[in-house]
Structure to design on (398 residues):
């Protein structure tokens, strides 16, 4: 297994010594170095190749934000993380779109290691030179919104308070509207209308709430741009539909509640890579030409990758759980991975494929939308008819 080289930056020597002690148990995975200033960090980056930088924000002469700006410009392939105890940093980092993930100080090293290592491994698995070039050519990947960090901070407490989670979500009116729209949709079949964010969080689950917050933020950011060659609203609606159909399928599979939630979350996020493609100037003509329907093979022809891998990369550096990243990465061609048991990936693949079959009026062409070689090993293909009927009923209900 590859060892990753990580650079920690903090002007407090005691903190660096403390980090050195707790990181020692991860020495089989990480080769760590330490810089006491932004200037020293830049010099070290010029002399050695690092996989990730983890920096404090409040430092004299060159603060963390200035350091991240330089790293993004001169070493765009290096993953950028912030470890800070100053909550005011969140807005600064968010507005600059420079950070891939932010950790509150203090954070358990196990938590930091899991997220940074996952991001590094995912990048390793997507190491095709063309893909790396495509990803790093995007000047700024979307970063999670401030509310997401507040949500994560609350969830890291020993006993997360659903009332507080509901209050955090309620701060974003657009997010609240989308959440209430989802929980009051036909998919949930509730007798009474839900109009309280806290109640909505209870029904949707924490992970689904986090995914909604992330995707609502990113979709809204792209929705502000007038020159987008895709309909953001349609992409959002499709993601919501896939999300709920995937959860229904996961329930029919008899999967655990956690796996059902993974399917719903992956459904929300499965096409988020399409938003990254919008930021590729050379790809804009292709997107406009295929505005109604962009074949997957065209993405590979022009980019040597697809929105699935690009989305998985983004979610990986955001620290999204492996099962969800995998479902996003393989949602078009699940046979590329070796697992042949029913899981979130299976549910998302079927939901996305069947919904597209219905949308493009190609119910007689399952081979165009589904990985039948994979599905034959996992399910009885006759089950597809039941889910198609379910989709038709839901769409008819509006």
């Amino acid at each position: 297994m590859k060892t990753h080289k990580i650079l920690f930056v903090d002007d407090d020597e005691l903190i660096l010594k403390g980090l050195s002690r707790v990181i020692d148990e991860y020495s089989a995975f990480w080769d760590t170095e330490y810089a006491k200033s932004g200037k020293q960090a830049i010099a070290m980056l010029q002399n050695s190749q690092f996989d990730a930088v983890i920096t404090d924000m409040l430092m004299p002469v060159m603060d963390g934000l200035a350091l991240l700006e330089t790293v993004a410009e001169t070493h765009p392939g290096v993953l950028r993380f912030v470890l800070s105890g100053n909550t005011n940093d969140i807005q600064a980092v968010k507005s600059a779109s420079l950070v891939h993930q932010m950790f509150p100080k203090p954070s358990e090293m196990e938590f930091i290691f899991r997220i940074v290592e996952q991001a590094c491994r995912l990048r390793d698995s997507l190491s095709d030179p063309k893909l790396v070039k495509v990803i790093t050519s995007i000047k700024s990947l979307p970063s999670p919104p401030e509310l997401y960090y507040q949500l994560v901070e609350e969830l890291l407490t020993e006993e997360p308070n659903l009332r507080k989670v509901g209050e955090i979500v309620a701060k974003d009116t657009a997010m609240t509207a989308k959440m209430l729209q989802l929980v009051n949709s036909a998919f949930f079949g509730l007798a009474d209308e839900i109009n309280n964010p806290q109640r909505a969080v209870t029904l949707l689950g924490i992970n689904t709430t986090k995914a909604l917050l992330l995707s609502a933020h990113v979709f809204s950011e792209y929705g502000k741009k007038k020159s987008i060659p895709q309909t953001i609203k349609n992409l959002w609606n499709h993601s919501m539909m896939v999300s709920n159909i995937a959860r229904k399928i996961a329930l029919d599979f008899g999967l655990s509640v956690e796996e059902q939630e993974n399917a719903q979350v992956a459904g929300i996020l499965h096409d988020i890579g399409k938003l990254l493609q919008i930021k590729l100037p050379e790809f804009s003509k292709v997107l406009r030409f295929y505005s109604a329907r962009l074949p997957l093979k065209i993405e590979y022809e022009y980019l040597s990758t697809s929105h699935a891998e690009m989305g998985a990369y983004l979610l990986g550096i955001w620290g999204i759980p492996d099962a969800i990243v995998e479902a996003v990465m393989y949602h078009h061609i699940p046979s590329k991975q070796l697992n042949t048991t029913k899981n979130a990936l299976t549910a998302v693949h079927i939901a996305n494929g069947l919904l597209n079959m219905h949308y493009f009026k190609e119910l007689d062409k399952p081979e165009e939308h589904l990985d039948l070689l994979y599905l034959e090993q996992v399910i009885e293909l006759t089950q597809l008819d039941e889910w198609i009927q379910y989709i038709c009923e839901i769409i008819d209900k509006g």
